[in-house]
Design goal:
With 58 residues, the chain is α+β, with helices and mostly antiparallel strands. Helix content is 31%, strand content 40%.
C-alpha cells in the first residue's frame, strides 16, 4: 500500500511539472523583476481548460 501511494504521488508531481507554463519573479512592490531580486514567485499552471496560479513567498 505504501508503494502505491508513492507511485501516485510521483505521478502527480510529474504531471504538475509537465503542465507548468510560466513563472514570474516579483519584488516587494509586486513589480516584475529577476530571480536574484525576487520577493515572491508567481507560477502559472494550465490543467486542461483551467489555470492554477501558485503564489510563493521567498
Amino acid at each position: 500500500m505504501k508503494f502505491f501511494f508513492t507511485i501516485v504521488l510521483l505521478l502527480c508531481c510529474i504531471t504538475i511539472a509537465n503542465a507548468q507554463k510560466d513563472t514570474l519573479w516579483l519584488d516587494k512592490n509586486w513589480k516584475e523583476t529577476n530571480k536574484e531580486n525576487a520577493f515572491f514567485i508567481e507560477t502559472l499552471y494550465k490543467r486542461k481548460e483551467n489555470y492554477i496560479v501558485l503564489m510563493t513567498f521567498i
